[in-house]
Design a protein that fits this description.
The protein is α+β, with helices and mostly antiparallel strands and 466 residues long. The protein contains 13 helices and 19 strands. It is elongated. 28% of the residues are buried.
C-alpha cells in the first residue's frame, strides 16, 4: 500500500512538472509570434509557483513583452524585479535599447553614495555632485583621472607642478593634498603628506564611474576633504564577465598595456586588473634647458589590483606606482630646469616617486533587525622626492636663504655658486599604517522599505505589484 502511495505521488509531481514546462513553452511560443497578451497571461498565472532561475526567465519575458509594446515604465518595473532576483544578469540578443536600460538599472548610475554615505538620487543630494559615467570615460579618451576631473567637473583645473596636481576653485598647494581621493570608499591619500597624484598610477579602464563631491565635506570625511571628494568605483567581476587586453604604443618610447579579468554571480565574484605605462618623453628645449614632456623615469607607472567577494566578505588589494618627469619643480620659482644636468641620487632622478600598497577586508551581515560590520586594513607607502628649486636662484631669494639659515660663513657662495648652481633637495620616507574596527546597528529597515514601496503602488500600471 505504501509503495502505491509513493508511486502515485511521483506521478502527480511529474504531471505538475510537465504542466509547468508546457506553460513555459506556450508562453515562449506566443511571445515569438508577437501575441504578447496571451504570453503575459500565461506567465503571470504561474509566477507564484516559480523560483530561482525560472522566476528570472519569467520576469525577463514580461519585461521584453512590455518593452516591445512601448510600455517602457512597465518594462522597467519588471526588469527591476529581474535584477532583484539576479543582480548580475546579462542580456544577449535583445534590442540594444533594452540592454541599455538593463545596464542602467544594474549599475545604478542614477544613484550616488558619496554625498551622504547612503544611496540617493542626484536630485536628493544635499551638495553639488558630478557623476562621471563609464560611457563618458570611454568617449572622452582621457588617460588619467586628473584629465577626467578637469574635463567634466566644474571648477576643477590642472596645476603644472612637481606632482600631478589639480585645484578645486583655485585652492591648491605644491602637491595634491586638499582633495580626498577614494577607491570603492577606501582612502588613497598618503598618510605622510595627505597627497594623491591621480596620474597613471590609477588605470581608467578599471573604473565603472566616478562621483565627485564639489565642495568641502570635512564633517563626513575628515580634514582631507577640504575642497572636494573624489570617489572612484571600480568594475565588478560580474560586469567584466571575462577578460580583455589593450596594448598601445607611440613615439618617444611610449608603451601601455592594460589587462582585466572578472567573473561573478549572486554568491561570489572576482576581478583582477594590471596596467603599465612607460615613456621616454619628448625632448624639448626651453631657453637652452633640456627637459622631457610626458616622460617617466625609473620604474614605469603601474596599477595592479584585485577585489573579491564571498557572501558578506569583501577583500581588495591594490599596488600603485608613478613617477613622471615634471616640467617644472617647486612652484615658487615656476621656471623650467635642465633635467639632464642633475645627477642621480640613490638611483633616483628629479621628480616625485610614489609607491603604495593597500589591503582592505570588510564584513557586513544582517541578522534580522541587527546589522554587524567589521573592517581591517593595511597601508604601505614609499615616497622619494628629488626636488629641484631651479637651475638659477634669483638674487633676493639667495640672499634671503643665506640670512634665514644663518650661513654667513658660506656667504662667498652667494657671489659665486648659489646663484648659478641652483638649489635642490631630496626627501625619502616609508610608512606602514594598519588598523580595524567593528560596528553594529539596529533597526526595522525591512518594514520601512515595504512601507516605501507600498506608498508608490497606486502609481504603477494595472496588473503590477511590488
Amino acid at each position: 500500500m505504501r509503495l502505491k502511495t509513493i508511486i502515485c505521488l511521483l506521478c502527480m509531481n511529474a504531471a505538475v512538472l510537465c504542466a509547468q514546462n508546457t506553460v513555459s513553452e506556450s508562453a515562449f511560443d506566443y511571445f515569438e509570434k508577437g501575441r504578447f497578451t496571451e504570453s503575459d497571461s500565461i506567465v503571470k498565472s504561474s509566477l507564484g509557483s516559480l523560483k530561482g532561475q525560472e522566476l528570472v526567465t519569467a520576469y525577463r519575458l514580461l519585461a521584453l513583452s512590455a518593452f516591445y509594446q512601448d510600455k517602457f515604465l512597465e518594462s522597467e518595473q519588471w526588469t527591476k524585479k529581474l535584477l532583484a532576483q539576479d543582480p548580475y544578469y546579462r542580456e544577449y540578443g535583445a534590442d540594444p535599447r533594452f540592454q541599455d536600460m538593463l545596464e542602467r538599472l544594474k549599475t545604478g548610475s542614477n544613484t550616488i553614495r558619496t554625498a551622504s554615505k547612503q544611496q540617493e538620487s542626484l536630485e536628493e543630494a544635499p551638495v553639488p555632485v558630478t557623476v562621471i559615467t563609464e560611457e563618458m570615460i570611454r568617449i572622452s579618451g582621457c588617460r588619467t583621472v586628473r584629465e577626467l576631473l578637469c574635463l567634466f567637473v566644474p571648477g576643477m583645473v590642472r596645476i603644472e607642478n612637481m606632482e600631478s596636481n589639480v585645484a578645486m576653485r583655485g585652492l591648491y598647494g605644491n602637491s595634491q593634498e586638499n582633495i580626498l581621493v577614494m577607491q570603492d570608499g577606501h582612502r588613497l591619500n598618503s598618510a605622510v603628506n595627505n597627497s594623491e597624484p591621480m596620474d597613471y598610477n590609477i588605470n581608467v579602464d578599471k573604473i565603472s564611474h566616478i562621483e565627485v563631491l564639489r565642495g568641502p565635506a570635512s564633517s563626513l570625511y575628515g580634514n582631507m576633504a577640504l575642497s572636494a571628494v573624489v570617489n572612484i568605483f571600480t568594475k565588478d567581476g560580474a560586469n567584466l564577465a571575462g577578460s580583455s587586453l589593450k596594448v598601445s604604443g607611440g613615439m618617444f618610447g611610449q608603451f601601455g598595456a592594460s589587462f582585466m579579468y572578472g567573473q561573478g554571480d549572486l554568491h561570489k565574484e572576482f576581478a583582477f586588473w594590471a596596467a603599465v605605462t612607460s615613456s621616454r618623453g619628448e625632448r624639448i628645449d626651453v631657453n637652452g634647458k633640456t627637459n622631457y614632456l610626458g616622460g617617466f623615469n625609473g620604474l614605469p607607472a603601474f596599477d595592479l589590483g584585485m577585489k573579491a567577494r564571498w557572501g558578506d566578505v569583501n577583500l581588495a588589494v591594490t599596488a600603485n606606482h608613478s613617477k613622471p618627469v615634471p616640467r617644472y619643480m617647486l612652484i615658487s620659482f615656476d621656471e623650467p630646469y635642465a633635467y639632464d644636468d642633475y645627477d642621480s641620487n640613490d638611483g633616483e632622478h628629479p621628480g616625485l616617486s610614489h609607491l603604495s600598497v593597500n589591503v582592505d577586508l570588510d564584513y557586513n551581515h544582517n541578522f534580522g533587525r541587527v546589522t554587524l560590520g567589521a573592517n581591517a586594513y593595511a597601508h604601505y607607502e614609499q615616497r622619494q622626492i628629488y626636488n629641484v628649486m631651479g637651475d638659477s636662484v634669483p638674487f633676493g631669494v639667495a640672499y634671503l636663504m643665506l640670512k634665514t639659515l644663518k650661513l654667513e660663513e658660506y656667504e662667498y657662495m652667494f657671489y659665486s655658486d648659489v646663484k648659478t648652481r641652483g638649489v635642490w633637495q631630496t626627501i625619502s620616507n616609508k610608512g606602514m599604517t594598519f588598523g580595524g574596527g567593528a560596528n553594529a546597528s539596529w533597526g526595522d529597515t525591512r518594514r520601512r522599505a515595504v512601507r516605501t514601496r507600498d506608498s508608490h503602488r497606486l502609481t504603477l500600471p494595472a496588473g503590477l505589484q511590488l
